[in-house]
Design brief:
membrane; about 230 residues; 9 helices; DUF1361 domain-containing protein; transmembrane; transmembrane helix; mainly alpha
């Protein structure tokens, strides 16, 4: 890749890292301040959830930076690990379920805290997916790139359901694979018995896809034609 093209991309990535870093710092500060304010660890679990959301972003960033040198034997296994951890990022949106009035802290503060964490999870998901879609588009074309993004978001929505309602996590594919496989297969073979599963998957998937498309279009609005 010529240097003239590489430098703008490096600047964009650094700018993204700075903004995401500032946004994540805000979430950490809000969570930490709440602990000091209430002497309770009510929302400390969000720190772990944000860490899990950073894993797919870290993997996609690594793949994006080394895209020109990647071979299929590296891309495929790393991409599979990325897909396994990817639902952890949009999953944080469902932590809004924990919002309720609590003593010792204003309701609006907890709302801001949860929204901050949810926003970071969503933005980490979209930033990560953008890198992965670019890799697919570069190899297979525009339509394949968007097909990949759509499938990834629908699968992540299914993963969110597994995590929120069945309490599975990414590690269960290693530590509890039989139960995980049985529950997934049971829902595939008997879809009418698990309408909630597919309702959450489709509705959440459509929401994530529309949000992703909106963010991608907003990112292109400032570009000059032909860029």
């Amino acid at each position: 890749m010529p240097l003239t093209f590489a430098l703008p991309q490096i600047r964009q990535r650094l700018s993204l890292l700075l903004v995401l870093g500032a946004s994540l710092t805000l979430s950490v500060v809000l969570i930490t301040f709440r602990v000091f304010l209430t002497h309770q660890i009510t929302f400390v679990f969000l720190l772990w959830n944000l860490f899990l959301a950073l894993i797919p972003f870290g993997l996609s960033t690594m793949l994006g930076l080394s895209a020109g040198r990647l071979k299929a034997r590296v891309l495929l296994p790393v991409g599979a690990v990325w897909l396994l951890f990817f639902p952890n990022a949009p999953y944080i949106l469902t932590d809004l379920f924990h919002l309720e009035p609590r003593t010792g802290v204003p309701y609006w503060f907890d709302l801001a805290l949860l929204l901050s964490a949810a926003w970071n999870g969503l933005m980490l998901a979209y930033a990560s997916l953008t890198d992965m879609q670019a890799l697919v588009t570069r190899r297979l074309g525009w339509w394949s790139g968007w097909a990949f993004a759509t499938v990834a978001l629908l699968l992540s929505s299914f993963g969110v359901y597994l995590g929120r309602y069945l309490r599975f996590n990414s590690w269960d594919i290693v530590t509890n694979p039989l139960t995980l496989f049985y529950d997934i297969l049971n829902r595939i073979l008997h879809p009418m018995s698990f309408s909630g599963t597919w309702g959450v998957t489709l509705l959440y998937g459509v929401f994530l896809l529309l949000g992703y498309a909106t963010v991608r279009l907003l990112g292109r609005m400032g570009e000059e034609p032909g860029e």
